[in-house]
Amino acid sequence: MELDDLKSLIELLKETDITELQVEKDGTKVRIKREKIFAPMEITHQRPSSAVQEQIIKETEEESQRLITVTSPIVGTFYRSPTPEAPAFVEVGLRVKKGQVLCIIEAMKLMNEIECEADGIVVKALVENGQPVEYGEPLFLVEPV
Predict the structure, then answer these.
(1) Per-domain residue ranges for the chain?
(2) Class at the top of the CATH hierarchy for domain 65-144
Protein backbone atom coordinates (compact mmCIF):
# COMPACT_ATOMS: atom_id res chain seq x y z
CA MET A 1 0.00 0.00 0.00
CA GLU A 2 1.39 3.35 -1.03
CA LEU A 3 1.54 6.59 0.94
CA ASP A 4 -0.86 8.22 -1.53
CA ASP A 5 -3.37 5.43 -0.84
CA LEU A 6 -3.14 6.11 2.89
CA LYS A 7 -3.62 9.84 2.35
CA SER A 8 -6.71 9.12 0.26
CA LEU A 9 -8.17 6.97 3.02
CA ILE A 10 -7.49 9.66 5.64
CA GLU A 11 -9.18 12.27 3.44
CA LEU A 12 -12.15 9.93 3.04
CA LEU A 13 -12.52 9.73 6.81
CA LYS A 14 -12.33 13.52 7.14
CA GLU A 15 -15.10 14.06 4.61
CA THR A 16 -17.54 11.57 6.15
CA ASP A 17 -18.95 10.61 9.54
CA ILE A 18 -17.00 7.34 9.42
CA THR A 19 -14.76 7.02 12.47
CA GLU A 20 -13.01 3.74 11.71
CA LEU A 21 -11.83 2.09 8.52
CA GLN A 22 -9.93 -1.16 7.93
CA VAL A 23 -8.51 -2.01 4.52
CA GLU A 24 -6.46 -4.97 3.28
CA LYS A 25 -4.48 -4.67 0.05
CA ASP A 26 -1.74 -6.90 -1.26
CA GLY A 27 -1.42 -8.67 2.10
CA THR A 28 -1.06 -5.41 4.04
CA LYS A 29 -3.74 -4.51 6.56
CA VAL A 30 -4.33 -0.89 7.50
CA ARG A 31 -6.70 0.23 10.19
CA ILE A 32 -7.42 3.93 10.58
CA LYS A 33 -9.46 5.15 13.52
CA ARG A 34 -10.31 8.67 14.56
CA GLU A 35 -12.14 10.07 17.51
CA LYS A 36 -15.19 12.09 16.70
CA ILE A 37 -14.62 15.57 18.05
CA PHE A 38 -17.60 17.69 18.80
CA ALA A 39 -17.37 21.42 18.55
CA PRO A 40 -17.90 23.17 21.87
CA MET A 41 -21.45 24.29 22.40
CA GLU A 42 -22.22 27.71 23.66
CA ILE A 43 -25.28 27.99 25.84
CA THR A 44 -26.68 31.42 26.20
CA HIS A 45 -29.19 32.49 28.77
CA GLN A 46 -31.38 35.36 27.82
CA ARG A 47 -32.46 37.50 30.69
CA PRO A 48 -35.88 39.08 30.49
CA SER A 49 -35.88 42.75 29.74
CA SER A 50 -35.93 45.12 32.68
CA ALA A 51 -39.57 45.98 31.92
CA VAL A 52 -40.52 42.28 32.14
CA GLN A 53 -38.49 41.88 35.35
CA GLU A 54 -40.20 44.91 36.89
CA GLN A 55 -43.62 43.51 35.93
CA ILE A 56 -42.81 40.13 37.50
CA ILE A 57 -41.57 41.80 40.69
CA LYS A 58 -44.69 44.00 40.81
CA GLU A 59 -47.03 41.00 40.36
CA THR A 60 -45.17 39.03 43.06
CA GLU A 61 -45.38 41.93 45.50
CA GLU A 62 -49.09 42.44 44.79
CA GLU A 63 -49.80 38.74 45.31
CA SER A 64 -47.83 38.60 48.55
CA GLN A 65 -49.62 41.71 49.82
CA ARG A 66 -53.07 40.20 49.32
CA LEU A 67 -52.15 36.85 50.92
CA ILE A 68 -52.35 36.38 54.68
CA THR A 69 -49.27 34.75 56.21
CA VAL A 70 -50.13 32.62 59.24
CA THR A 71 -47.06 32.56 61.49
CA SER A 72 -46.03 30.55 64.50
CA PRO A 73 -46.74 32.37 67.78
CA ILE A 74 -44.27 30.12 69.66
CA VAL A 75 -41.20 27.92 69.28
CA GLY A 76 -42.07 24.25 69.01
CA THR A 77 -42.79 21.32 66.70
CA PHE A 78 -45.28 21.71 63.84
CA TYR A 79 -47.98 19.06 63.34
CA ARG A 80 -50.53 19.06 60.52
CA SER A 81 -52.94 16.67 62.32
CA PRO A 82 -54.04 15.94 65.91
CA THR A 83 -52.55 12.39 65.78
CA PRO A 84 -50.24 10.59 63.36
CA GLU A 85 -53.15 8.49 62.04
CA ALA A 86 -55.60 11.39 61.64
CA PRO A 87 -55.97 13.40 58.44
CA ALA A 88 -54.43 16.87 58.27
CA PHE A 89 -56.48 19.76 59.66
CA VAL A 90 -56.25 21.52 56.27
CA GLU A 91 -54.88 20.88 52.78
CA VAL A 92 -53.72 23.28 50.08
CA GLY A 93 -56.74 24.50 48.10
CA LEU A 94 -59.16 24.00 51.01
CA ARG A 95 -61.50 26.81 52.02
CA VAL A 96 -61.10 27.75 55.69
CA LYS A 97 -63.03 29.95 58.10
CA LYS A 98 -61.76 32.44 60.63
CA GLY A 99 -60.95 30.58 63.85
CA GLN A 100 -60.59 27.18 62.13
CA VAL A 101 -57.64 25.12 63.38
CA LEU A 102 -54.87 24.91 60.77
CA CYS A 103 -52.25 22.97 62.73
CA ILE A 104 -50.82 22.24 66.17
CA ILE A 105 -47.52 23.47 67.58
CA GLU A 106 -46.21 21.34 70.42
CA ALA A 107 -44.19 23.28 72.98
CA MET A 108 -43.04 21.72 76.26
CA LYS A 109 -45.52 18.83 75.88
CA LEU A 110 -48.43 21.25 75.40
CA MET A 111 -50.42 21.11 72.16
CA ASN A 112 -51.22 24.64 70.93
CA GLU A 113 -53.85 24.91 68.20
CA ILE A 114 -53.06 27.54 65.55
CA GLU A 115 -56.19 29.07 64.07
CA CYS A 116 -56.82 30.87 60.79
CA GLU A 117 -57.02 34.64 61.08
CA ALA A 118 -59.63 35.15 58.31
CA ASP A 119 -61.91 33.32 55.91
CA GLY A 120 -59.97 32.20 52.86
CA ILE A 121 -58.35 29.47 50.82
CA VAL A 122 -55.10 27.79 51.85
CA VAL A 123 -52.66 28.61 49.04
CA LYS A 124 -49.49 27.06 50.43
CA ALA A 125 -48.27 25.06 53.43
CA LEU A 126 -44.76 26.29 54.20
CA VAL A 127 -43.69 23.77 56.87
CA GLU A 128 -43.43 19.97 56.77
CA ASN A 129 -45.10 17.79 59.41
CA GLY A 130 -42.90 17.21 62.46
CA GLN A 131 -40.53 20.06 61.61
CA PRO A 132 -39.34 22.41 64.38
CA VAL A 133 -40.53 26.01 63.99
CA GLU A 134 -39.38 29.32 65.43
CA TYR A 135 -41.39 32.23 66.77
CA GLY A 136 -42.75 34.24 63.83
CA GLU A 137 -41.92 31.58 61.23
CA PRO A 138 -44.45 31.50 58.35
CA LEU A 139 -46.61 28.36 58.41
CA PHE A 140 -49.33 28.90 55.78
CA LEU A 141 -50.33 31.37 53.07
CA VAL A 142 -54.06 32.02 52.93
CA GLU A 143 -55.87 33.98 50.22
CA PRO A 144 -58.72 35.94 51.81
CA VAL A 145 -62.19 35.55 50.28
Answers:
(1) 3-33, 65-144
(2) mainly beta
Element holding 62 (H helix, E strand): helix 50-66
Answer for the pair 99, 116: CB distance below 8 angstroms, yes or no: yes
Phi, psi of 101 (to 5 degrees): -70, 130
What mean pLDDT comes out for the span 103-112?
94
Distance CA 68, CA 5 (A): 80
Would you say 32 and 9 are in contact if contact means Cβ atoms under 8 Å apart?
yes
Question: So what's the pLDDT on residue 133?
Answer: 95
pTM value?
Answer: 0.56
| C-alpha angle 88-89-93 in degrees, rounded to nearest 5 | 90
Listed in sequence order, the residues at least 6 apart from 103 whose beta carbon sits closer than 8 Å to its beta carbon are 78, 79, 80, 89, 90, 113, 114, 127, 139, 140
Residues 21-27: what's their mean pLDDT? Answer: 80
* 103 pLDDT above the threshold of 70: yes
